[in-house]
Amino acid sequence: MRWDDRRVVITAAGRDFGRTLAIALADLGAEVFLSARELTAARRVRDEIRRGGRQRVHAFACDLTSPASIRAFASDVAEHTDRVDLLVNNGSRYLAGPDLLSAADDDVVDTIASGATGTVLTTKGFLPLLLNSPAPDVVTMVSACGTPGHHRSDAHDAFYAAKSAQAGFVEILSKRLRPQGVRVISLYPPDFDNADPLSEEWHTTSRQAGDALSAHSLVECVLFAVAQPRDCFIKAFHFEQA
Ligand SMILES: NC(=O)c1ccc[n+]([C@@H]2O[C@H](COP(=O)([O-])OP(=O)(O)OC[C@H]3O[C@@H](n4cnc5c(N)ncnc54)[C@H](OP(=O)(O)O)[C@@H]3O)[C@@H](O)[C@H]2O)c1
């Protein structure tokens, strides 16, 4: 498929997987609207992409725990484009610690707000622009922690709650948006390694059967799903843990 006529929004692209995906999609020619909680982080990634030779990239601030910030992000993007072809709900705060008592209340609130409420409101905010696309897709980075019965992560219970809420949201959204032509595609990865896509390691990291899942392979899952003809609606990616 051609990426140079696709317009992509990615949340939490100031570091790690969001940055990786922003760089990969810009590299393929997509126009990228990336956000990070801090505008400086978003601009740093935008500038990295521009230095790599891709100029169609825009940086925004978006705090996923703030409805006003999410609304401002969507309306700022709408000043640049009348449609979005792909929304990537990547942002979600991680909270470690398998002991419920170990986290402060504020951290619990923040974790659930960024992952759960943030994903719902971001999708809501961008839906009008997605519906203007002839081929709209919503990709959400959930987690194996959002799979019923999963217990193998050391993540905090609040992170499990956030990811389970995301999973419930995309499940119903997938059915409800299908008649409008929007594919809701979700990934449920276990812990994965994220080599810097601008480093040599990106190309040399082993991706054999015994290796941990890599960000490189996850990027390829996203590209594969989105590249399918519209009758092929890949709803979810689940991964066998090593
Ligand atoms: N890495 C893994 O092993 C793994 C496994 C399964 C699923 N996932 C999911 O995949 C996605 C990306 O993973 P990752 O490894 O890149 O995550 P990460 O390293 O934990 O980074 C979290 C991202 O979310 C952002 N964030 C946190 N709170 C935010 C808020 N209130 N507003 C806006 N952004 C906020 C962070 O921004 P700041 O820089 O501002 O903190 C950061 O960009 C996440 O949804 C994650 O849960 C990851």
From TrEMBL:
It is an enzyme of class 1 (oxidoreductase). SUPFAM superfamilies: NAD(P)-binding Rossmann-fold domains. Its EC number is 1.-.-.-. GO terms for molecular function: oxidoreductase activity. Pfam families: adh_short (PF00106). Keywords: Oxidoreductase. Belongs to the short-chain dehydrogenases/reductases (SDR) family. This is SDR family oxidoreductase.
